[in-house]
Write a structure and sequence with these properties.
Layout lengths: L11 H4 L17 H15 L16 H16 L11 H18 L7 H7 L12 H11 L25 H12 L2 H5 L21 E4 L5 H8 L4 E5 L4 H4 L5 E2 L9 E10 L5 E6 L11 E5 L18 E5 L4 H10 L9
Parallel strand pairs: 3-6
Antiparallel strand pairs: 1-7, 2-4, 2-7, 4-5, 5-6
Helix pairs in contact: 4-5, 4-6
C-alpha cells in the first residue's frame, strides 16, 4: 500500500497548460466574478442534476442566500491552492480521527473531539506526518499508544512538529514519572524542572480503541454493511478538479482509482430519483462542499470492478471498541446478506 499523499487544491496554475478532465477552464475564467459565475454555471449544468434527499433538484431554484453561499464555496475552491486545513498531507489523520470519534460516540454516547495533531507529530513510525500516511497505521498507533488525546489538549496546527509527549494519553503523569526516575528528585527540588503537581488525570477525556478491521477490498456491499454501523475510514482519488470544485449534489464526476486522499464514509442514502450515494466527511473545512461533506455516487460501475467511484471501496477500515453493543451489531451485520439501502 502506498502512503496517502493527500493532494492539495493546487490545480489552478497547471490546468491551463494540461488537458483537463471534467469542465475545462483557464486562468481567465478566474479573473472576475462574472467569469467565475459563468464557470460555476457550466459546472452546475454538468454535475448537479440529482435530487436532494428532501426533494427538489440540486441544480434547481434556491434562495438568494443559499445560492450565493454555494457560489462563494465554488469560487473559493477554484482560486485556492494549498492553505486549507487538512491539506498539508495529514488527511490520513483526519480520516482516522473521524472514524474513532464516530465509534466512540456510538459506544459511549459522548462526542469527543480528538487530536489529529497528535497523530501528525507522534505517529512517526510507518506514517510520515504531513508527508502522508495510512489510516490503518494510525489505528495501530492509537491502540499501542493506549489511546488518543483531545483536540483541546493537543490542537491542530497544520504543520508537523516534535511530538509533545506531555500531551499524549497518560502523557502528563507518565512524562513526569520518567523525569523523576531518570533525572532525579534533586533536579526537581532545585527548581530546574517544575512538575505540575498534583498530576492531572491525563486520561479522563482520552479515547481508546481495541484494534481495527479492514473491509474486504473492492466490495461496496461489504463497505455498506460496515458504514451501516459506524463511520469508516476510506481512501479515494481526489486529485481531479471535478472533486475539488464540488459544492453540492451527488458527485458523479470523473475520477480514477489512484488513491491519494483519506476521508471518512459516515452514511449512505438514495435520492428521490433513485441515485444511490455515500455520505463522506472531508477535511477541507465547512465551507467546502455540503458544509464539509460530499455525497458520492454509490454503486458506480468502473473499469476496476467494484472499487466504487474514485476507488472508495479499495482500502477501507474501521476502529473497534470490543465488548460494546456497536461492535456486536457490526459483527452481526457482517453476517447478513441484506442491509437497508438507506440509513
Amino acid at each position: 500500500m502506498m502512503l496517502l499523499r493527500c493532494l492539495l487544491l493546487a490545480v489552478v496554475v497547471a490546468v491551463a497548460a494540461a488537458p483537463a478532465r471534467g469542465v475545462p477552464f483557464t486562468e481567465s475564467d478566474l479573473a472576475s466574478e462574472e467569469s467565475l459565475r459563468a464557470l460555476y454555471e457550466r459546472w452546475r449544468s454538468r454535475y448537479t442534476v440529482s435530487r436532494r434527499p428532501g426533494g427538489g433538484l440540486a441544480g434547481g431554484a434556491e434562495g438568494d442566500g443559499e445560492a450565493r453561499r454555494r457560489f462563494n464555496v465554488f469560487a473559493e475552491n477554484a482560486r485556492d491552492t494549498d492553505d486549507r486545513r487538512g491539506l498539508k498531507g495529514s488527511c490520513w489523520a483526519f480520516s482516522a480521527v473521524a472514524a474513532v470519534e464516530g465509534v466512540n460516540k456510538i459506544s459511549t454516547g459522548k462526542l469527543v473531539s480528538l487530536s489529529e495533531q497528535e497523530l501528525v507529530d507522534c505517529d512517526a513510525g510507518d506514517n510520515q506526518g504531513c508527508n502522508g500516511g495510512l489510516m490503518d497505521y494510525a489505528f495501530q498507533f492509537i491502540k499501542k499508544n493506549g489511546g488518543i488525546t483531545t483536540e483541546s489538549n493537543y490542537p491542530y496546527r497544520a504543520v508537523q512538529g516534535r511530538c509533545n509527549r506531555a500531551k499524549k494519553r497518560f502523557g502528563t503523569a507518565r512524562y513526569w514519572y520518567l523525569k523523576i526516575l531518570f533525572v532525579g528528585l534533586e533536579q526537581i527540588s532545585l527548581g530546574n524542572i517544575l512538575p505540575p503537581f498534583p498530576f492531572p488525570n491525563a486520561s479522563s477525556h482520552d479515547v481508546t480503541i481495541d484494534g481495527y478491521e479492514d473491509v474486504p477490498a473492492n466490495d461496496e456491499s461489504a463497505l455498506q454493511k460496515a458504514v451501516a454501523n459506524q463511520p469508516v475510514a476510506v481512501a479515494i482519488e481526489a486529485s481531479g478538479q471535478d472533486f475539488q470544485f464540488y459544492s453540492e449534489g451527488v458527485f458523479t464526476g470523473e475520477c480514477g482509482t489512484d488513491l491519494d486522499h483519506g476521508v471518512a464514509a459516515v452514511g449512505y442514502g438514495t435520492t428521490r430519483d433513485g441515485t444511490k450515494y455515500w455520505i463522506v466527511k472531508n477535511s477541507w473545512g465547512d465551507e467546502w462542499g455540503e458544509r464539509g461533506y460530499i455525497r458520492m455516487q454509490r454503486g458506480a460501475s468502473s473499469s476496476s470492478g467494484s472499487s466504487g467511484l474514485c476507488g472508495i471501496a479499495m482500502e477501507a477500515s474501521y476502529p473497534i471498541k470490543s465488548g460494546s453493543a456497536q461492535h456486536e451489531a457490526a459483527a452481526a451485520a457482517a453476517n447478513e446478506s441484506v442491509v437497508r439501502d438507506e440509513l
